[in-house]
Specification:
alpha/beta, TIM Barrel, 13 strands
Length: 450
Amino acid sequence: MQSKSIVPEDFMWGGAVTSFQTEGAANSYGKGLSIIDAREVPEGYSDWTTAVDFYHRFKEDIALFKEMGYSAYRTSISWSRIFPNGEGEVNEAGLQFYDVLFDELLANGIEPVITLYHFDLPLVLAEKYNGFASRKVVDLFEAYAKCVFNRYKDKVKYWLTFNEINVVLLNPEYWGVLDQNLSEPLKYQLCHNVLIAHAKATKAMREIIPDAKMGGMISYFLTYPANPEPVDVLANVEVKQLLIDCYLDIFTTGEYPSYFTAKLEQENRVLKMHRDDVALLKENIVDYLSISYYQSRVVQYTGDDNLFTSMMKNHHLQMSEWGAVIDPIGLRIALKDIYARYKLPIFITENGIGVREKLNQDNFVDDYYRIDYLKQHIEQMKISMQEGVDVIGYLTWGSTDILSSKGEMSKRYGLIYVNRCESELLDLKRYKKKSFYWFKRVIESNAEEL
């Protein structure tokens, strides 16, 4: 008798990107400026004017995704393409672009998995209100979410509110906070505001698209104690609580965990809450949990009040050329821990490796190193599923090559090569890498053939 496959038939295979790293058309078709567009570009890097021109080439790219066998594709909606000023008059051209994009995905059997916010706040909202540090922006985010839910309610069933919400304390600038010297109390208030925005959007989705699912997403920074000394073990517990568990706890219970509220009390910090905040969080828990996973760290007790300074590179493991620690078993550890704690489906919505690459004389990239990286991570995912973890999908980071979040084209994640560099667009032609054909076989066999 044939054994049952570990990976279910309806498993979602595909890739993930952001709008700003792919679309281009940054100053066209009524789009307003975002905080990304206003970011100072380091010397030798690229701006976002063209990116990889997905805005004009998405049909060509989606045909390649279909050839690979994708059943899901994650991207984000550009808030400033829908509301150029973040509020006020809607840009119909922006809404129409995503209509056509989602239609094309669905026509090719690919489920759109859509992120409402991926670090690209409309610039006006940063300059006028200091981003999500203001409750005004929380309300404007709710209005933006309602607009796109109403428009795409028949096309998109898998949503994420915020990309990697757990980096809010580490990178408040990603949420449009222009004051880089934001005080610690205000950082926690910013965190609360973002969580309330998440809850408001979740509530709106349930009212407008009852059959849709909302996920809560974090970047899973797996950590280990640097040594078996109790102080390092305790430091690791505290880092995990503040960086990982707190957000997952709130997503799934709708309550701030006791270790978080105790920390605020010890530090004499009081969150400014509106009357309905507690109920909003409690009544709008998520349908699934989503993670990006790239690497792990170790934690060594330093005595520093800032727990994040205790996170260090793990020199027992190999690193990518960009300094990311490669730890496939860490993905399995993360999945097992999440599912044991929360018993909710898990969607891996980012995983991949950035590498410098060039086309050879045959216009081909033999990216065996990427195949090895993805293979090891998928193997560990499968083992976790065999051990009882409910994983519903796996998306590589990048499908085509894309600009990195800093504007680097040399840091390539894709299974499809895009012919451009930082300084020159070249012809932007797409070329299939070796990993394209490998991932096609993985999807065709539902990961039976790795």
